[in-house]
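Board notes, transcribed. Complex of a protein with beta-D-fructofuranose.
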Amino acid sequence: TEWTDALRYQDYEDWSDEYLSNLKTQQRDSPWRFAYHIQPETGLLNDPNGFSYFDGQWHLFYQAYPFGPVHGLKSWYHLTSKNLVDWQRDQLRLLPDTSFDSHGVYSGSALPVDDKLFLAFTGNARDKNWERHATQLGAWMTPDYHVEKLATPLIPAPPTGYTQHFRDPQVFVYEENYYLLMGTQNDAKEGKVLLYKGTSLTEWELVNELHFSSEQMGYMIECPNLVFVDDKPVLIFCPQGLDKQTFDYQNIYPNLYVIADDFDPESATLITPSDFHNLDEGFDVYATQAFQAPNGRALSVGWVGLPDVTYPSDQEGWAHCLSLVRELRIIKGQLYQQPVAELETLRQAVLPMSDLQGVFYQPESNCYELTLTIPADEESTLTLFASAEHDYGFDIHCDAKNGMITVDRGRMALQVNPDFGTSRTMNVAPNAAIELRLFVDGSICELFVNEGERVCTSRVFPKKEDTTILLDGVADNSTLWSLRSIH
Ligand code: FRU
């Protein structure tokens, strides 16, 4: 298929049932399909949207383009869960059916208010000259998933001085007031975050640009969100075009965070913000959305995929998945991200491992959780997704002495965006044991280091039978669980 604009923005009704059902079959038969990650049934999935707790269950939406592995006419697809692990697929719930969102219902957030869920999102429209018009829109969803869009935009246009790259509203409550964060670009083509205050959910006034750094932030900031983790404000954001002198990153666009001491909404300031950090040290995480769950937990979920690059599953008509849900904590001033405790309910059998050196095990499928510790003075390489002949695989090299971990997908048979580098390195304390916890699922490995001190997500595209786990070096305390499917 040649994905012209006309085709990408074609009405959903104009795609035949047969076309869609062929796409479904391709996805279902894919060797790269996931057992316990949220994935599209067809086409492309991108940003998580509207992550929330409402009416006794968790709600999560994602940006969906159901008709191919490209960014076309977007909607919000809705899922629900009782436990943050098993997700029930509902259906598309926000569709591009008004003049404001004729070219896509773009990203946004949700807030439970009384007996309804408030949705805030970006309406993306293109005029005759294909010029973009961005409006911030609202909708209410009832407990039985009936969605009604508000006729009037929440924010009709970007303020003077900002371009139509103005999207991804995050609504939140702080000290009993409503606030809204926007990702945007100013007329000088610099990435900015704007803070609005709501006199109500439908009336928003610009407070100011959010002050959180003196650095220039590239040409655009997408998906900003402010979440309070153990009482500290953490700003998560995606700058595009960020100078690598400002922050050294390898992915096409990074997903960063800063931790601050405090948040002053009057002056739109994050007080004493930290340096920038990668939220995820791996190859593929973007557009992470975090929110405050009712019991004070800060939860996040990321898009495992990146804009403007291609992936091998594109050939099969589908692309990307969401990360596992993570719980954020601040420990000794540092951000920790752990897979939510509920994920332990995925565990099935403990699998026997032959020994702690050489070939670990050949599970039946790439669907497992593995924990192990590299002792303080050791240097070991764990290889996953290896072929039976061990001639290729995904390497995780741990040098505990020097406190360095390198993940390397350069030895996989199929390369993914090698122009952006085939390995990623992260640092931890030297001369200390390194604890690894890995979630492997079809074509993803989510690695949590030292109880969430570092997280590293990698898409890899193995053959279905390439499940061998190898260890070159020493490791202690290893346990391997097979995990169940949620689909
Ligand atoms: C981030 C993003 C958002 C936008 C959405 C459109 O990946 O570009 O800024 O709202 O995707 O799908």
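The pocket of beta-D-fructofuranose is lined by residues 46-47, 63, 74, 106-107, 122, 167-168, 222-223, 286-287, 307 (CB under 6 Å). The longest helix spans residues 17-28.
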